[in-house]
Amino acid sequence: MAAGSTKTRSGTAERRQAFVQAYITNGHNATQAAIAAGYSPKGARVQGLRLLTNDNIQTELATLAEKTADAADVKAEDVLREAASIAFAPVPDEPLTWAVKVKALEMLMKHLNLFETHNKSKAATRRPVSRSGCRAG
After folding, report:
1. Burial level of 53, CB count in 10 A (0-12/13-18/19+)?
2. Residue ranges of the chain that CATH labels 1.10.10.1400
């Protein structure tokens, strides 16, 4: 193997790691993460989407999300239970307070990949959520 190809692989690995870190810290914006990782702004959208389909990057993102959730002691079930209780709550008198809380929950759900992975992995065993926020059945 030529020395140049080792350097290229190392540079690619460094770019991928930079992409993962930027993606986690910027609110999951693949285009901006690709730019931060050193990809051309002109092709950053395509590169960002391509990188998100890479199995190694998906694994790294999932691992980081799990570590962050564990460190924050946040469990997917807790977030879903709270989201359900808010969804079925009466219209509040202070919408700004609720808007902030809902936005925080959306961010947590996005960070935990609950919009994507939870729906895919739990679709076959999903039970309806009652109005009290507890699982039916």
Report:
1. exposed
2. 1-71
Encode 98-132: b = buried (16+ Cβ within 10 Å), e = exposed: eeeeeeebeebbebbbbeeebeeeeeeeeeebeee
Q: Are 115 and 109 in contact (CB under 8 A)?
A: yes
Q: Tell me the C-alpha to C-alpha distance, in Å, between residue 123 and each of 78, 88, 119.
A: 18, 21, 6
66/64 Cα distance (integer angstroms): 5
Query: pLDDT tens digits for 57-109?
Result: 999 998 888 887 777 787 778 877 887 777 676 656 666 577 767 777 787 77
| CATH number, span 1-71 | 1.10.10.1400
Q: Tokens for 39?
A: 């990809």
